[in-house]
## 1
Amino acid sequence: MHVQLGEISTVVVSSAKMAKEILVTHHPCFANRPENLATRIIWYEQEDMGFSPYREYRKQMRKICMMELLSIKSVRSFRFIRQDEISKLVESDSVVFFCGRLQEVHCQMDEVLEDMITQHKANHEIGRKGNAESGDKDLIDLLLLQQQESGINHQIPITTRNIKGVILDIFTAGTDSSSVTTEWALSELMRHPEIMAKAQEEVRQGCKGKKTIEEVDIQNLKYLKMVIQETLRLHPPLPLIPRSSRENREVNGHMIPEKSRVLVNFWAIGRDPEYWDDPEKFKPERFEHKSVDYLGTQSEYIPFGTGKRMCPGVTFGLASVELFLAHLIYHFDWRFPNGMKPNDLDMDEGFGITAGRKTSLCLIGIPYHAYD
Ligand code: HEM
């Protein structure tokens, strides 16, 4: 589908076959991200990783992120932080909100990032002067280390703006997508009490007697994983995968001009009756005999995108959602307030970078002491 949005030629791709053409066959022609005011102001003139144009700097930064920050080994090494944060969450109420004008938001975030970097540099200095270094390295330590090695290991120097951009990528792309997915999964479980009962039974039996669920316990929770797979099919947090064309390109007989905005509509692909039986129904069992590798090899299932620009945070994202959801249904029985029924729950998406719920999910959590 072609839509002319003012001066911007926009192509929306809503079939698995065409998605493969755009994201794989004709990569790298469609490897750029669309530019706009928000990406320029907030993401340091796109000097980050997620929005930077497809050129040498981006390849280098992605390689560093994949090897040093988001590799299976790094994701595992941060498991204590995840568990600690989730334990704090199940013990407290928390509300997070974000608003405001672009420049104002940018300045506030920049100040926070600058403070974090200065603090880390000061800690390195103390470490160098002979005092003991405290604990393991976190994401900022790893990025600063890569910066020090610029010129030795990397062709393109890594600037402090690049580091800030990448931290911002990880905060924004990494936190919202995971929390949105967890919220949709809990919403679907509330709409389907029989599925909630099955998932809860699996978690409570599998982790019986434990005060805290650990990531190793998650490996055996097959049904929970299917619930998440089905949630990502029906409610991908990034329903429109944004790309932009770097040159004129003919794809399946259609000429797509240079600098067109190309949106791969995974929301529609995930509901395409050509691939999905009873597509609108939330049915985790459909994944019982369908192997999912999340690498985009089946173009009808690409919640993390595919090709060279696919999400580098798959392992991190899944680890967070699995642990978070498992804790929520292990430690609490959930009820609707005010006599609400499962079918009364509004399942519309709201407007935003990620497609979260239009209305907040308000539930009553009744603590369940599975470990007494
Ligand atoms: C449920 C969780 C998540 C989902 C569903 C998700 C989905 C996606 C999708 C669809 C894309 C676009 C891919 C493409 O253009 O082909 C993307 C890009 C990206 N994601 Fe994720 N993501 C998740 C979690 C994370 C996490 C935890 C991180 C980092 C810690 C992360 C970092 C990024 C970055 C940096 C990009 C841009 C990559 C690039 O342009 O090279 N994501 N994600």
Note: Residues 160-191 form the longest helix (32 residues).
## 2
Amino acid sequence: MNEIISVDAGHLLSEKDGRNFILHDEMEGFGKKYGGTFAAFRSLLKEKKSPLTLSFAEESSIPRIRSVAQELAEKYENVLLLGIGGSALGARAVLQFTRGPYYNLAGQARPRLFIVDNLDPVLVKNLEELIDIRKTALVYISKSGSTPETAALFIHFYRKYREAGGNLKDIVIICDPGDNGINRIAKSLRCHLLHIPPELPGRYSVLSPVGFLPAELIGVDSRQLLEGARAVHRSIIDAPLQENALFILGACLYELSAKGKYIHVLFNYSSLLSEFGLWYMQLWAESLGKRMCLTGEPSQANTTPLACLGATDQHSILQLFKECPSDKVFGFINIESFPVDIALAGEFPDEKEYSYFTGHTLGEQLHIEQLSTEMSLARDGKPCYRITLKDMSVPALGALFYFYEALVVFIAGLWQINPYDQPGVEEGKNITYSLMGRSDYSRLRPAYESAVAEYKAGSRIFSIPFKPAGLD
Ligand SMILES: O=P(O)(O)OC[C@H]1O[C@](O)(CO)[C@@H](O)[C@@H]1O
């Protein structure tokens, strides 16, 4: 196939079963029902007025990002990337897809890239025991600069780095421009400072310095991510409605959620896409999980993302998918052509459970298992679509990122919700700031402290005693 990605939406449709699928007649009416919303969405893309298109302008920042990456790669054995959510998940997906899960273990990998996106003290200690901080560069990514988890990690590693005599100018900070703590710190350290376009929300920022720097650090040409994204961008703009993959899929998913298919499962058929699955979950959840419409009315948005890994999760969650309530729509991501394949030798020819593998390959088996899983769900009344990536190239990954970014923005338009904010995350952050003693939140602290006391008073704890053997 010549396409970079293709979408098979045929098994979201049915001739007769309009309860679980989209009827062919219903699809015929999509243009009339959703064409207006799509046209508005498409013209924002075309006129480069959509936040998504800010990524394309970021191409101009790549030469500088590349030179920072090369400088760090020459000087350091390790790079520690601190970020969370949109400031880490895209980098994780790029690292895993392009270099595989064992990149840091490969002797020739330089620099090794460690992405820390949690506060867990055990995780941090484990990492410290593994790396020599004197040979480690620090990259601190926080769009807002106020995310408490990443700020805490930066404080910790900055202290270690400074105590180890690290060159403060080599630190890289990536954030929004602005007059705030993170920008002042970057200026006072006189370190590398890369800015994210303010109108590009964090979960859409993988195609910006947030994803480009980690890509360049591991030797991936970040321009190629943009090349793939551009191919999708052009196809959204150029393809007529009835052949437009994004329009058809977006309209189907929207209609299916109205038919009770609330859970959007993304079943990725490559271990090198499991981090992409986590990136997708944040993108989908924070963009589409909205209580209110742009009009101020309660929203009808009712979708939950779930990422799974094929073939692995066929042996964990598939049973439930098959036999429990039909509240899901399934997206499969398949790789057409793996860069390598492994042929199975003819062992145990007298054993029927083993002899049939002879002459097959692991890639072939993965494809067969993907198809079997999809077919068994579709034949059981579960709507399925499949996205096939031509290969495991960098442009294919860029295309996939942009496709899902555009898909959520289009679907948000159908629900008339804002895909770019995340008001639901704020309360938890405010409680954390107050309880941790952030000065500009001290006013809220007494109220939150009494709310915490009240909450804890509601606990009902049932303990299970344990006496280690030999201590009786
Ligand atoms: O890049 P920042 O500002 O540190 O934010 C990290 C993440 O926190 C959130 O704001 C809330 O979860 C996400 O939208 C964002 O990706």
Note: The chain has a mean pLDDT of 96.
